[in-house]
Amino acid sequence: MTYKDIQAKRPEDLQKLLAEKREELRELRFKIAANQLKQVHKVREVKEDIARIKTRLNELNVQGV
Length: 65
Hints:
Layout: H1 3-7, H2 11-33, H3 41-63
């Protein structure tokens, strides 16, 4: 997910997406612990998505939206 995609979303949608990404990260961590995950790079991608979403939400809070 690119930052431009995130910029186009409303704050309510971003909150929902953030919750989904956090749940996905949690599931990936469980799979790593159970040695079931072959594509470990997905953890990094999800973390980066979470950071992008949180950055956009912080920008919107500073702007007062």
